[in-house]
């Protein structure tokens, strides 16, 4: 199945930044070339897999010694 192309608002919702900053965060990622995007005419679209990869790459994992310990 082909990757779905998301608009900037959909990306903001997916990243959880829509309520606080609207489209500003995803647009900053695009401007700084921190996320791959597709130009469709004058529109910017981001592949769903790119958003998922961005989330995965920026996920902070606990250290092995921290597992099972209360905060």
Protein architecture, described:
The structure is a single chain. With 71 residues, the protein is α+β, with helices and mostly antiparallel strands. It has one domain (5-60). The chain is 42% helix and 14% strand. The protein has helices at residues 8-15, 18-21, 24-31, 48-57; strands at residues 5-6, 38-40, 43-47. The chain has a 3-stranded antiparallel β-sheet. InterPro entries: HTH_17 (IPR041657), SinI_DNA-bd (IPR010093).
Q: What is the rounded distance between the termini? A: 42 Å
Indicate the low-confidence ranges by residue numbers.
none
Largest sheet: 3 strands, antiparallel
Query: Could you spell the SSE succession in H and E letters?
Result: EHHHEEH
Number of helices: 4
| Tertiary shape | elongated
Into which percentage range does the β-strand content fall? Answer: 5-15%
- Given helix and strand content, the structural type is alpha+beta
Radius of gyration: 15 Å
Helical percent range? 40-55%
Task: Report mean pLDDT, rounded to a whole number.
Answer: 91
> Count the strands?
3
Reading side by side through the largest sheet, how are the strands ordered? 1-3-2
Q: What is the total number of structural domains?
A: 1
Layout: helices, strands, pairs:
Layout: E1 5-6, H1 8-15, H2 18-21, H3 24-31, E2 38-40, E3 43-47, H4 48-57
Antiparallel strand pairs: 1-3, 2-3
Helix pairs in contact: 1-3
Labels describing this entry:
3 strands; DNA binding; elongated; SinI_DNA-bd; 71 residues; alpha+beta; Excisionase family DNA-binding protein; HTH_17; single chain
């Amino acid at each position: 199945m082909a990757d779905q192309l998301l608009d900037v608002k959909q990306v903001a919702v997916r990243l959880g930044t829509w309520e606080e900053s609207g489209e500003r965060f995803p647009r900053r990622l695009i401007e700084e070339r921190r996320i791959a995007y597709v130009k469709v005419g004058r529109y910017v679209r981001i592949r769903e897999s790119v958003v998922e990869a961005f989330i995965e790459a920026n996920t902070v994992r606990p250290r092995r010694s921290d597992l099972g310990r209360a905060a």
